[in-house]
Amino acid sequence: MSEDVSIAVRPSGEDMTVFEQLQRTVPIRVERDELLTLQVAQPLPELCVKHGRDADQWRSIGINFRPGLLGQEQVSVASFARAALWVTITFGYAMGRVLNVSATLEGRWPICRRCRWAALVFRWIGHIFAAVGPLALFVMFAGLQSGASGELFEKLRLVVAPGWFPFSLMVAGAAYLRSATYVRCRPIEDDAPTTVVIRAHPAFADAVADLYTDTSGATTSSEEA
C-alpha cells in the first residue's frame, strides 16, 4: 500500500536547452515560456520510494507532466494509452495537444535492485514488441525473393498493419515508459507549486517525516543559539 508524501520543490534555476526540451516533448511545438520546470528542494532518505528497501543507487530522473482534467498530470502508462488512443481516433490531428509536455520535475531519486530489474524486464518487453514489424518485413522480403505463396504474404501484411502499427508500437511505447517510471506523482494543481505529492511506500513516507523533523529541530536549535 502506498501513501501520499509531499516533497518540497522549487523552480529550476537553470534554463533548459532546446535539445533538453525536445527530449521532454514531441518535436512539434516547443515554447520555453509554457514549460514549468521544477527541482526537488529537500533531502530524501536512502530508501527506495516504491518498495521502501535500502536504496543501492541514486538516479537522476526527469518526471514529465501533461495537461489533464485534474491539472498537470504525470505522464504514465495510463495517460500514454489514453493519448495514443485519442491520437489514433483523430488520425494524428490531436497529437500536438495530447502529447505536449507542460511541466517537468527534476531530481535524484533513490531506487533499489528490484526497481532496476523491473525496469530491465519492461525495457526488453518494449524491444520485443518494437522488433515485430521489422522482423515481419524482413520475412516478407525474403518470401518475395523465394516465391512464397500469396497467403503467407497476406498474413505477414496483417502482422505489420494493424498488428505492429499501431498496436504493437503502442505496447512497446507503454513498456518503455513503464521501465522509466520509478516515482508516481499526484497531479500538480498550482501554477507555482512549492510541493509535489508523490505516491510512496509507508517506510519511505515515515523516513521523510523523520528527516523533516530532524531538519526542523536542527534549524530551531541553531536559531536559538
Automatic annotation (TrEMBL):
- Which spans are transmembrane here? 120-144, 156-177
Asked if the record carries the keyword Transmembrane, the reply is yes
Keyword set for this entry?
A: Membrane, Transmembrane, Transmembrane helix
Its domain of life reads Bacteria
Protein name per UniProt: Uncharacterized protein
| Organism this protein belongs to | Nocardia macrotermitis
